[in-house]
Fold this sequence. Notes:
By secondary structure, the chain is an alpha+beta fold. Helix content is 35%, strand content 18%.
Amino acid sequence: MNGSRSGYVGSLLAVLLLVAFAIGTAGAWPPLVAVESDSMAPGVERGDLVVVTATDRSPWGEGVVGSDEDEPPERLGGSGDVVVFTSPNVPDRPILHRAAFAVTAGEDWTERADPDRVDDDCVELRSCPAPHDGYVTYGDANDGYDQSTGISPVVREEWVHAKALGSIPTLGYVRLGIDAAIARFGLVPATVGIVTIVAGASGVVSVILGRVRDGRRIDRNG
């Protein structure tokens, strides 16, 4: 009983330490973002897990680099920074999209836009002229800019939570499952259940590895 309890506590501490390290290093919460749609395909697809950091952390300086700038960085299968931001149009659902270019208040940004991503003139768009300084954004797989399709107004600097570093295929389904468990059962019960599962899985793996080691010792002694 004591051994099981010690293993449970050890697993819980390990999870907490891992989370604390990730937050401290990334400077953003959550440091791992699960992709829920295919709007950034093919570079990032639904179920992928994206690693993000705060915009003022290494390896970047301050600000966001748009895909239209000279020699923009390559992020997640395309040019320009991929950012996590919150739109007032969908405030309960952070968006992971690519920055196209920065705009200033009052600017007719359609003059710099890719004609394949915007069909209307400035006077026909709610976010044009730009109501404030910020960024025009888009999903790689979407036909239009977020500001021409109604997904978001021009994205203010303070709406941007993080930049994307890279992605891990399919691992995001684990995060989506955790989020679903928290939404259904609550944070504390879901956390206890997850830690219990991790502790149990760790115990099973330890037993299997122990038997493998014991088998090798028997073979050598024999």
